[in-house]
Amino acid sequence: MNGKKVYFISDLHLGLPTNPKSLIREKLLVNLLDEIKINAHTIYFVGDVFDFWWEYKYVVPKGFIRFLGKIAELTDAGIKINFFTGNHDVWMKSYLTDEIGVKILHQEISIDIAGKKFFIAHGDGLGPGDTGYKILKKIFTNRFLQWCYSRLHPNFSFQIANSWSKNRRKKEKYIEFKGESELLIQFAKEKLTIEHFDYFIFGHRHFPAIIDLKPNSKYINIGDWLINFTYVEFDGTEIKQYTYKKGISEIYKTDLSVRKNLDIF
């Protein structure tokens, strides 16, 4: 890594709930990328970069120009950028690779970084239980059903998807940490019985956390850029989690307890 660092960011949900409100967070994200680009060797966006993304052969969602332009600048400068697909943007194909040079990852990966073994995944569908979502994910990733959905006009298909996503978000409560009952913690512990990993890196659950599974193995949930504005940094020796305080001060003008109320978005 030659003194450079690896960064992990997750659950940006760009586009939620409206383009004007999303733009505030997008500009803050661009600011963060400007701040870390000098030291960055690789950046992993660990899923749900977009609240909805669908690629037709000749059509992709409009918007996110500042973010996409900044990513293109970083890849042009030689910084490696990886986008994991999440449960909201699972339909990424080749457009972002061709246009801005990112690598799209559709599955979890295990990778050695500076002598440390990482398991990295968005996290949706991993672990025991959650049968309903696992069935839904199979539907979302079915090629024939994707082909059928692509027959719809973009104005109609995008409206359906965006309405569904926003309605689901309104019904959800602030995501509280469930301790040992967290499915991803159970998944990580089970994985450790088969193979050692120094770090498990996940998104999806939105809460920021670093938890010791064993003396030399940690579970890390990155957090999100809806409520917490957190990211993770690995310098080759140590891993740390940070809150982007500019994001907190810009979005929450009053008591930080309002972070538990998603209606502020």
CATH topology: Purple Acid Phosphatase, chain A, domain 2
Shape descriptor reads globular
Give the tally of β-strands: 11
- In the CATH classification, which architecture applies? 4-Layer Sandwich
Mean pLDDT: 86
Number of domains: 1
Oligomer: single chain
Condensed summary:
The protein has helices at 19-36, 65-76, 95-100, 131-140, 143-150, 154-171, 183-192, 245-251; strands at residues 5-9, 40-46, 80-84, 103-105, 109-113, 116-121, 199-202, 209-214, 217-221, 230-234, 239-243. It has 265 residues and is of the alpha/beta class.
Overview of the structural elements:
This protein has 265 residues and is of the alpha/beta class. The chain has 8 helices and 11 strands. Helix 2 links the parallel strand 2 and strand 3. Helix 1 runs parallel beside helix 2 and helix 1 runs antiparallel to helix 8. The longest helix has 18 residues.
